[in-house]
Design goal:
Blueprint (H helix, E strand, L loop, with lengths): L1 H6 L3 H13 L9 E6 L4 H7 L3 H6 L9 E2 L4 E3 L11 H8 L3 E3 L4 H4 L3 E9 L3 H12 L4 E9 L13
Parallel strand pairs: 1-2, 1-5, 5-6
Antiparallel strand pairs: 3-4
Amino acid sequence: MHQLKYQRRLAIASAFAFAWNRLAIPHLDTPEATVLLPVPLSTQKLSQRGFNQSWEIAKRIQLPLSIEPIANALGRHHSDTNQVQHNRLDRQSALRHAFYIHPEALPKIQNKSIVVFDDVMTTGSTLHEIATLLKDNGARSVVNWVVLRALRPQTRIHSRDL
């Protein structure tokens, strides 16, 4: 994922989508879902990176015909802090009100079951904030699809402790 995001190796998005289609799709049970939204990047980060990695993977997966992928329904306010270094509480605080729904997309989410697609979930704070936003704006339900799950930091055992 690091190579996709930071080295612009877009072919890796196809590899992730291929793996998703083979391994995840057969096990997903979301018959009521009608809309798929990728986790957005801020305009500044999107300009800097040149693409949204969540969308690059999402647009390549095999969706049921009943699910409409929408690239730009959600937006994100820019923040100068990178979430990678933060713990759960810091992330939750930094992400409060970080996302918004573009007004023209509101009719597409109201009373709908939404899939939010993300490349990596670390603490779940981003997905929680987006789900809250969508539900507060009329979404019937929200489910998250995540390609990779970051491991929680493990406490190291030192040889002196054994």
